[in-house]
Amino acid sequence: MKETEIEWGKLPFGYVKTDWNVRCEFKDGKWGEITATQDEYIPLHIAASCLHYGQEAFEGLKAFRGKDGKVRVFRMDENAKRFRSSAEGISMEPLPIEKFEEMVRMVVKLNKRFIPPYGSGASLYIRPLEIGTSAQVGVSPSKDYMVIMFATPVGPYFKGGFKPTKVCISREYDRVAPKGTGAIKIGGNYAASLNAGQKAHELGYSVMLYLDPKENKYLDECGAANFFGVKGNTYVTPNSRTVLPSITNKSLRTLAEDLGLKVEQREIPYEELSEFSETGTCGTAAVCTGIGQIDDLDKGTSFVYGMEEAGPVTTKLYHALQDIQYGDAPDNHGWCEIIELD
Ligand SMILES: *Cc1c(COP(=O)(O)O)cnc(C)c1O
Predict the structure, then answer these.
(1) pLDDT, tens digit, 9 for 90 and up, residues 105-144
(2) Cβ-count burial of 247 within 10 angstroms (0-12 exposed, 13-18 middle, 19+ buried)?
(3) Tell me: the pLDDT tens digits for 262-297?
(4) Distance CA 121, CA 132 (A)
(5) Nearest Cα to 142, choosing from 48, 52, 57, 44?
(6) How far is the CA of 270 from the centre of ligand 1 (A)?
(7) Is residue 314 within 6 Å of ligand 1 at its C-beta?
(8) What is the Å distance from ligand 1's center to 37 Cα?
(9) How far is the CA of 224 from the centre of ligand 1 (A)?
């Protein structure tokens, strides 16, 4: 596809073929050189550990083109660190941070013609992943690994614009185990949540809001995004070992403080849903989105925040973060790296 054929404003949040992907292999006990290829496929042994025992972790980050024409990548050092902790969480070899950052710069540069223009609402999504590649049948960590990064232009996550979503609670499903892998970004967590997600979709909800898997008493994760609520002048978000530490959430907490809000990261009892003036979800894909209504499928009750528009705090935080990402506001916290394209 030629870049001129892409209608930037109508891009889905999906895979669009770009020119290059970059790779780095761990073999014989060390990481090799980073290579670039136009091949969209990988040679993989039929007994590779990622296929049988789920040794796979991934990341998601974005590059944005600003009004000034410059391209900014948001907090990639945080993604690099989390990629390491995800790898360690399933006994994979963690990729050095410098290698991660070098691969990001390379994949953005090589695919620069796919970075959407400023004002389109689109961005270049970068997807790093790591897999165990050794051929083995016994259950043990792989010896060899491959890290791949590809990039694909994506449109805004929610097609309807910045509109609140409707989510549901069901005690029939847990996303992860209480002492399991909830805090790392691995494909296995997603596979385990697909049935619940499908169920939510069938019933007309965007995602499921999970309660903590141990006691079902506290709010945990919202689909594949973090949950937050606003109560008076306070931004509240769960502190839970089964929630993925979202970089967007971390950034929103800082911005909330900048805006003069108090920030609380703590256990949020289910009952507190009735005390919030706003609730929302956040993550790289959608930045943050208001939740308009939460239906409890087990109790047949609802918490209503308003489906018309997101609350004022959610809206303010959304713009504050996007303005930094697109270079429209000063990057006071040093979150963006400008990628030199030539
Ligand atoms: C990636 C992810 C998020 C969001 O994290 P960001 O760093 O903000 O993109 C939240 N929850 C889950 C389960 C995730 O995998």
Answers:
(1) 999 999 999 999 999 889 999 999 999 999 999 999 999 9
(2) buried
(3) 999 999 999 999 999 999 999 998 899 999 999 999
(4) 35
(5) 48
(6) 21
(7) no
(8) 28
(9) 6
